[in-house]
Amino acid sequence: RLQPGRSSRYVRRHHDAEYGHQRGEINFWIPLTDRGLTQTTLWVESREGADDDHPLAVTLGEIAAFHGSVCRHHVPANASEHMRASLDFRVGIEGYFDPTWQMRGTKEDHRRRCVRL
């Protein structure tokens, strides 16, 4: 994800279930720019319904995992002159992920792929 510098654009507070993701998915988030440059990062609830969003103190070379389908998260506007870049993906955990699950009426349905490791 790219977030231009000196921008009022932001990612609103949400949980991924609003977009068709199920409880059996875990989010992984990797910063690709130093948050010292942009002074912004991903903010996440500590647990479902806690309403205690906190900034992830993840540095370059690290990865954060969180339960984004139920924990609300957001990214504030980037007021710096530097572009913020990050990579995120979700993993379905065997025993918790239902490959036949579908949610009608979501804002966007995502294709699901299975990767055997």
UniProtKB/TrEMBL annotation:
It comes from the Eukaryota. This is Aspartyl/asparaginy/proline hydroxylase domain-containing protein. It comes from Haptolina ericina.
